[in-house]
Amino acid sequence: MFLPFELFKFIFCTLTLLLIDLVLCYNPPKRIYHNSEIIDDKLLIFSGWTNIADYTFELFYLDLSKPFDNNNLTWTLIPEGSLPIHTYQSATVLSLDNSTIYLIGGYMTNKITHNYDYSNLVYAYNYPTSAWSAPELGGDIVPPRQSIRGVIDNSRIIYIFGGFNATDLVNNTGDLYNDMNTLNTVSNTWTTLSISENIPIRCSHYTANILPNGIIVYIGGIEKVSSFAASFTLVNINQIKLFDTENLEWSYVNATGNEIDSRIYFTSVLTPDGYIFIFGGSTYAATNASLASVSPILAMLDTNKNSFEWSIPSGSEENSPPSIYGHTANLYNDYMIITFGINIDTRLYSSEVYLYNIKSNKWVTTFTPSKPSTTTGSSTATSNPVKTSSPEKKSSKSLAIGLVTGVGIAVLISFIFIAIFVFRIKRADQLRQRPDILEIPGSD
Ligand SMILES: *[C@@H]1O[C@H](CO)[C@@H](O)[C@H](O)[C@H]1NC(C)=O
Ligand SMILES: *[C@@H]1O[C@H](CO)[C@@H](O)[C@H](O)[C@H]1NC(C)=O
Ligand SMILES: *[C@@H]1O[C@H](CO)[C@@H](O)[C@H](O)[C@H]1NC(C)=O
Ligand SMILES: *[C@@H]1O[C@H](CO)[C@@H](O)[C@H](O)[C@H]1NC(C)=O
Ligand SMILES: *[C@@H]1O[C@H](CO)[C@@H](O)[C@H](O)[C@H]1NC(C)=O
Ligand SMILES: *[C@@H]1O[C@H](CO)[C@@H](O)[C@H](O)[C@H]1NC(C)=O
Fold first, then answer.
1. Biased composition, Low complexity: where in the chain (predicted)?
2. Distance between CA atoms of residues 59 and 36, nearest Å
C-alpha cells in the first residue's frame, strides 16, 4: 500500500512542477514586427508576426531585476494581459507615469474572425490592472496605418508621423502618409496638425526618438519621392527630419561622419547623454525575400553637435550579433536589449536576446541589473507608483498557483480513481491466485 502512494506523490509533485514551469517559465513563439516596453523592471513583449497559422496574443516579459545569460532566458507569461486583437508593425508608446502602453496602428486582425479589423486604431494596456481597453477617442479621424513609430512629450501628447497604408492586403501595396497626428492622452483626442511649411516627403518604416528639448528625430525608412513614382525608395540616412513639438515645425539636418547604410526595419534607442544607437535593419525591396543586410549593423548618432554626426563605436563589431531585422530594442540602464526579429543571412527567426553595453561599447552575453542605488539621490529615489506595487507578478503567480492547484487536484483525484481500480484488479487477480501481472485498466 505504501509504494503506490509514494509513486503518486512523486507523480503529483513532478506534474505540479511541470505546470508551474508551463505557466511561469513560458516559451514564447519567435516573432518579427512585435512591440516591447519596459515597466517596473520588466521587459514586456507582445504582438508581432509569428509566421505560423496561430496568431499570437500573449503578453510576456523578461525580468530585468535579476541577472541572466542571453543563452538561458526565463520568460514569464502574463495570462490576463492577453491582447484584444492581433497586430504587427504597430507603434507603442509608454505613458510618462509608466502605467499605460498605447498600442497604435499596424496590421490589425480580429481575434476571433481573423479578418482585418480597423475598428480601433488605438488600444491601451493598463499595467497596474493588467487590462487592455480601446479608449474612446475624440477629435480628428486618423486613417489606419502601419510601420509607424510614436513618441510622447512632457505634456503627455503622442506624436505619430506618416506611415504606410496598405490598400491591397494581398500584394501588400499601398500609399505613404506625411501627416503629423497627435494623440493627447489627457483629453483622449486626436489632432491632425495643419502644417504648411517644410512638410516632409511621404514616409514610413523610420525610427523616432524625442530629445529632452522636445525635438523629435526621425531617421531612415522609405519614402515616396513624387506622387508619380512607381515605387518607394530608401530615405537617405544622413537626411534627418526634425520635428519641434513646441513650435510644431519641421526642419532638417544633414548628418556627417561615418558612412552608414540607409535602412528599414531597424531600431533606435536614445541614451541620456544624447546619442541615438541604431541597430540592424535591411535594405528596401519589393518582396521581403530580396531584403539584404546593411552595414554597419550598429551605429550611433551624436545629437549634441549642431550638425548631427554618425560614428561606429570602436569595439561594436566584436562579438556582434548577426544582421537582423524586424526586432525590437529597449534601453535599460547601460544595456540596449534586442529581442527577436529575423536573421537576414539565414532567414531564420531569432529567439536570442542580444545585449549591448552602451558604456563599454561592447556586446555582452550576461545581464547584470545595477543595484538599487542609494547614492544617486532624489531624482531616482522619488516615488514610483508602479514600482512600489507589483500586481502583475502577484496576480500571474496567484493565477498560476490557482491553475496548478486546480489541475493538480484533478490529476490527484484521477490517480486515486486509477489506484482504486488497479488495486481492485490486483486484489481480484490475487484472489484468483494468478501471477502478479501489471494490467492496463480496461484491457480485459
Ligand atoms: C538558467 O537560469 C536559471 C535561473 O534563471 C538557473 O537556475 C539555471 O542554473 C541556469 N542554467 C544554466 C545552464 O545556466
Ligand atoms: C518610469 O520608468 C523609468 C525607468 O524605466 C524611470 O526612470 C522613471 O522614473 C519612471 N517614471 C515614473 C513616473 O515612475
Ligand atoms: C488604408 O486606408 C483606408 C482609408 O482610410 C482604410 O479604410 C484602410 O483600413 C487602410 N488600410 C490599412 C491596412 O490600414
Ligand atoms: C495583386 O497581385 C495579383 C497577382 O500578381 C494580381 O492579379 C492583382 O491584380 C494584384 N492586385 C492589385 C490590386 O494590383
Ligand atoms: C542637405 O543636403 C542636401 C543635398 O546635398 C541639400 O539639398 C539640403 O539643402 C541639405 N539640407 C540642409 C538642412 O542642409
Ligand atoms: C514576407 O511578406 C509576406 C507578405 O507580405 C508575409 O506573409 C511574410 O510573412 C513575410 N515574411 C517575412 C519573413 O517577413
1. 369-389
2. 10
